[in-house]
């Protein structure tokens, strides 16, 4: 069985609401711990009792397969009692407010509340009203910090570092909480981030985020170590952001031909779910340079590391 570290990882913040909750010193420690959990998860016996006696509630107001299932697996492998709250059949669907729901859950004395919500800032509001550790599993167009951590872990395992790497984030940056968290995370760790997309899918002031802006794939991918594609989030769009999905794919979909603009062994990433033939071609998504399935594996390990670290409250990082 893989041994866990003798010196546990502690976080200064009581919650993980955004990348800003993590210092440049805490991020490598979390990634080191997640590295250990990668090996733990590859053992026949994946269970540990670190969270034994603790309760984790997954409260997802938006549907999710990867994030919710990986948080559930992470909690159970660490020995927590995990409850998935079905929002569609709960009192929320009957008109109960978000704060009423928070107070109801808080009265049950959980230790962790993992929340995904369609409104930016909703998770932070919940964190102010409950007495347990709150983890942001994605809020509106705001942030998705554990996705940024798992992406950073995936990249670091291949290159041995984040500092100095050229990372291109391509597509629907405007609607993407994944892009925002990754930009904050990767620039904080010394990577050079570029964003690539049509002006309609880039937020105003994006150049002030510490990244370089490109409007075509040839220039944006030139010399990139990592190409991170984003899902075209049609469900968040009101109005016309692109002329058609076919035209979007022609200019911004990642094909084998466009991938050649990047470095020869550049990694291909995607947070999922993928729209094949819209933002990425199947031959690239399933190709030798793709680490998309590896990202899913890293997600469980990262979420185990976050739960582990947040369980040790009252300590300094």
Summarize the structure in words.
By secondary structure, this protein is α/β, with parallel strands linked by helices. Helix content is 35%, strand content 14%. A five-stranded parallel sheet has the order 7-6-5-8-9. The protein starts with 25 loop residues before the first helix and ends in a 7-residue tail after the last helix. The mean pLDDT is 91.
Number of strands: 9
Largest sheet: 5 strands, parallel
The percentage of residues in β strands lies in 5-15%
- For the CA atoms, what is the radius of gyration? 19 Å
Q: Which of globular, elongated, flat, extended, rod-shaped describes the shape? A: globular
Which key features would you list for this structure?
317 residues; five-stranded parallel beta sheet; 11 helices
Compact summary:
Helices cover 35% and strands 14% of the residues. With 317 residues, the protein is of the alpha/beta class. The strands form 2 sheets. It has a 5-stranded parallel β-sheet.
